[in-house]
Amino acid sequence: MIKTYLWVLYTSIITTCLLSSCNQQKSTSTGIASPEDTLVQIPNEWIEKLKNPQSPAHELINEFEALLYPEQKDNLVKKRSTDDLLLKPTFINVDESPEKELLLWIGHAQISEFAIIKKIKDKWRLLYSKEHHTLWVAPTLRIGDSLSTSTPKVFYVAHLYGRGSGFGWGKWHFYRVENNQVINGLKAISGAVDAFGHYVSTDVHTKVQIKDANHLNILYDYKFTFRAHNDLEEDYLCKNDSTLMWVPFIQGTINLHYVWNSSTKKYQVADKALQTKEKFMNESGSLSEFYEAFRPEIKQSTHPNRNKIIEVFEKVIAAEQKDTTPHKKVVSVFFGYNGPSYYETRAKK
C-alpha cells in the first residue's frame, strides 16, 4: 500500500511540474492606460478571415501566434491541417461600449490560448491572452446573461491546474472588461479531487449561478475523507479501515453569494461568517486552517470514527504549532499552478 501511495505521489508531482513548466513558456491581464499605443494590434484582415468559415484553421492559428510572438516566428511549431486544433471565436458585447468584443479559444486541443480582443479606435487590439491546459477536454466559456443585451457581462472559463491518477483540480476564472482593461475578478474551484491527500482526501465540485454582472452564487459540493493513516495505531486502522479510510467524515453543500466590489475589482463573499470556508476552498491551507474552517461540521459528524479523527487532527495540529519549519508546518489540501498571462511576461511596447 505504501509503495502504491509513493508511486501516485511521484506521478502527481511530475505531472504538476510538467504543467508548471509549460505554463511558464507562454501566456496575459492588462492595466494599461493607453491601449492603442501599447497593446498588440490584430489586423482587420485576420479578423475578417476568422469570420469566414472557409479560412483554414491551421493558417489562422499560425498567423495569430506569429503576431503575439514575432521574435519567435521562425522557431514556432507550425500547426498543420491534420493536427487536433481548436478555434472557437465568440463575438459578443461584454462591456459598456456599443461594439462587440471577441472572446477566442485558439491553439491545439491539448494546450490553447484564451484571448480577449477588442476594437479600439477602429483597430482590433489584444487585451488579454492566457495559456490553458485542456488535455483534450473541450474548453469551457460561459457568459452570464448571454441572451440579454444588458452590459457589462461577467464571463468565465475553466482552467486546468493539474491532473493524473487519483487527482485533478481546476478553477473557474471570472472576467470583466472595464475601460479597455480585463479584470480577473475571481478564481473559484471548478472541481478538485485528491484521493491521496495529506491528512484529508478531497472531492469538491461547484455549480455557478449568475444573477447579473455584480452578483454570483457558487454552490460547493464537498466530501472530505480521512487520510492520516500514519498517525493511527496499526490495530485500530486494521479494524476500522473500511469506514475510516473510505467513508467521508464530512460532506455537504455550501452556497456562497459573491458581490462585486468596485473598489477592489474583486468578487467577495457577502457573508463574513463564510469567508474562512471560502478562502480554504479556493486557495490552500494547513490542516489547522481546514479544521478551523470546518470545525462545526466535524464536531457534528455522524461518522463512526469521528472521535478518533478529531483526536488525530488535534494531535497533528498541536505538532504543527510547535514546528517552526515552514515547509513542514504547511499541509496543502488544494494546490496547483496558475501561470502568468501574456502581458505579465513581456515588456510593454
Structural summary, described in words:
The protein is of the alpha+beta class. Helices cover 29% and strands 34% of the residues. The protein has 10 helices and 13 strands. The protein has helices at 2-25, 35-38, 44-51, 57-68, 234-244, 275-282, 287-293, 295-299, 306-322, 326-329, and strands spanning 41-42, 85-92, 101-108, 111-120, 123-133, 141-143, 155-164, 167-178, 181-194, 200-212, 215-226, 250-261, 266-269. It has an 8-stranded antiparallel β-sheet. Strands 1-5-4-3-2 form a 5-stranded antiparallel β-sheet. A hairpin with a 2-residue loop joins strand 10 and strand 11 (215-226). The protein is elongated, with a radius of gyration of 23 Å. The protein starts with a helix and ends in a 20-residue tail after the last helix.
What are the defining features of this structure?
eight-stranded antiparallel beta sheet; single chain; elongated; 34% strand; 349 residues; disordered N terminus; alpha+beta
List the helices and strands and how they pair.
Elements: H1 2-25, H2 35-38, E1 41-42, H3 44-51, H4 57-68, E2 85-92, E3 101-108, E4 111-120, E5 123-133, E6 141-143, E7 155-164, E8 167-178, E9 181-194, E10 200-212, E11 215-226, H5 234-244, E12 250-261, E13 266-269, H6 275-282, H7 287-293, H8 295-299, H9 306-322, H10 326-329
Antiparallel strand pairs: 1-5, 2-3, 3-4, 4-5, 6-7, 7-8, 8-9, 9-10, 10-11, 11-12, 12-13
